[in-house]
Amino acid sequence: MSDSRETLLVRTFVTVADSLVADYDIIDLLQTLVDRCTDLFDASAAGIILGPDDRHLEVIVSTGEASRSIGLMQLRAGEGPCVEAVTSGRVVSVSSRAEMHDRWPTFADAASESGYVSVHAIPLRLRGETIGSLNLFRDLEGALNESDATAAQALADVATISVLQERVIRDSTLVREQLQRALDSRVVIEQAKGVISHTHQLDMDSAYRLIRYHSRSSQTSLSAVAAGVIDGSVKIELPTPPRGASTP
Fold first, then answer.
1. Are residues 157 and 73 in the same domain?
2. Residue 80 has pLDDT above 90, yes or no
3. Can you tell me whether residue 171 is helix, strand or coil?
4. Rounded average pLDDT over 126-130
5. Distances in Å between the alpha carbon of 147 and those of 90, 106, 124, 153, 172?
6. Are residues 151 and 193 in the same domain?
7. What is the crossing angle of helices 172-200 and 204-217, to 10°?
């Protein structure tokens, strides 16, 4: 890993540490992690699936609609590298299109259509409990090198701790409630993306970026902004172009 990537990794950990305060926005934090993963590990896309058990998993964050669709397809089929990482509790690394096709033909076809030819899925696991997986999709064949695999595991551990903070680990009921809140927030955000997409004629990725921009500029949680978009109390307009800028 180059010095610049090591610096980015350190900054990512600092961002997480700064975010782990009372009432932090778990969706925004996990989104930051997957966004950083694409830069750190030369991944085309990344995402996290999460759930109270392996029968109730959801795509909680992703870097785009393509990787989200791949995740949803695996959840519907009940198979694929990301699902296997959760059910087995082990890292699942698939380094070529041929290997993907041998193990999960349906997943391999969908992944190839999106340009992904290798996948690295890391379970979100702490003290024997697996709650999801961090998934890296790449457009080049080959496994992660040892340094990158170690760093990716560290980020997966950070994601796990972000969800299952020490104060709730001791109580399984609170853990389930924490997970359910995260899943409920994701549903609200997806609905808000649809509203913004329809209102401003944007694709879903652009709609999500606009919601995140409003969240950060207003210092309001993603979940609160999304809920406001749905009930009409929050109006999000397209950013005004700089004075003198040409209109596309």
1. yes
2. yes
3. coil
4. 83
5. 18, 31, 19, 10, 34
6. no
7. 110
Q: Is residue 246 part of a domain?
A: no
Q: Are 81 and 34 within one domain?
A: yes
135 touches 46 (CB < 8 A)? yes
Mean pLDDT calculated for residue range 46-74: 90
| Helix (H/G/I), strand (E/B), else coil: 59 | strand
Question: Which domain CATH number covers 227?
Answer: 1.10.10.10
High-pLDDT (> 90) share of the chain, %: 50
Alpha helix segments (H runs only) across 41-125 = 65-77, 81-88, 97-103, 105-113
Q: Which domain holds residue 8?
A: 3-164
Q: Alpha-carbon distance 33 to 159, whole Å?
A: 8
| Whole-structure pTM value | 0.70
- For residue 121, pLDDT over 90 is answered with yes
Which whole-number Å values give the CA distances from 94 to 49, 72, 138, 239, in the listed order?
18, 19, 10, 41
Specify the CATH number for the domain of residue 56: 3.30.450.40
DSSP assignment string, 198-216: HHHT--HHHHHHHHHHHHH
